[in-house]
Design brief:
- The chain is α/β, with parallel strands linked by helices.
- The chain has one domain: Rossmann fold (3-Layer(aba) Sandwich).
- The protein has six helices and nine strands; from the N terminus they run E-E-H-H-E-H-E-H-E-E-H-E-H-E-E.
- Strand 4 (86-91), helix 4 and strand 5 (112-115) form a beta-alpha-beta unit.
- Helix 2 (48-58) runs parallel beside helix 3 (75-83).
- It is globular and about 45 Å long.
Length: 209
């Protein structure tokens, strides 16, 4: 994938881990051109939540298998792969998968990429950790996402969702706690604001120290 005029290279650095990421030069321009009958191109931006989630991953115990929901251009998935996780990166948008694949190649990393629709997604194998950054913004997706995450919890995975403090995320956490989920909140600094981490633990015990 060659760098086009509409693309730019960004230095993504968290702690002492550095990545070079290709992304659209202007995510705002893509959003301005968005048609209502299409999926919004939210994948094109490195969101604040990605930094917070990467800081969390930096401090986790020894890596295992990790699934990312909504990988976008691949910042979190590439970061996890560089830390040594066995990563499966997923997104609904084919264009996002294309950029994520290029960013893996650009940084000399390996991960599996899958285009995934949460309404009919059942990945093979078990995962130690399932993550997502800024995927709770649309409350209409919560009835689809919640049962998917519940399946992972039942399999023994931990789930960590990073969010910059959107009301929809607070609502998601509150509803899940009513359903009996055990959710612990942690906070990590992003470049411009604090990121909330919704850590949903499995019945087999806590994942994070």
């Amino acid at each position: 994938m060659e760098t086009a005029a509409a693309d730019a290279i960004y230095d993504f650095v968290v702690e002492d881990v550095a990545l070079s990421l290709l992304a659209p030069r202007s995510a705002d321009a893509l959003l301005d051109a968005w048609q209502e009958n299409e999926e919004p191109p939210y994948w094109a931006r490195i969101w604040e939540a990605a930094w917070g989630l990467c800081r969390y991953l930096y401090g986790t115990p020894a890596p295992g298998r990790l699934l990312e929901l909504g990988c976008g251009i691949g910042a979190v998935g590439c970061f996890a792969a560089k830390l040594g996780w066995q990563v499966v990166m997923t997104d609904y948008q084919a264009e996002a998968i294309r950029y994520a694949a290029e960013n893996l190649r650009r940084n000399g990393l390996a991960a599996r990429l899958e285009r995934a629709d949460w309404r009919k997604f059942d990945p093979e194998g078990d995962f130690d950790l399932v993550v997502g950054s800024d995927i709770l913004y649309d409350s209409t997706n919560h009835p689809i996402l919640a049962p998917l995450l519940a399946r992972f919890l039942k399999r023994g995975s931990a789930v960590v969702l990073a969010d910059p403090g959107r009301p929809a995320a607070l609502s998601f956490g509150a509803e899940r706690e009513k359903e009996g989920w055990k959710i612990h909140l942690e906070f990590m600094d992003g470049p411009d604001s604090t990121v909330a981490l919704y850590i949903c633990e499995s019945e087999r015990g806590e994942y994070h120290d």
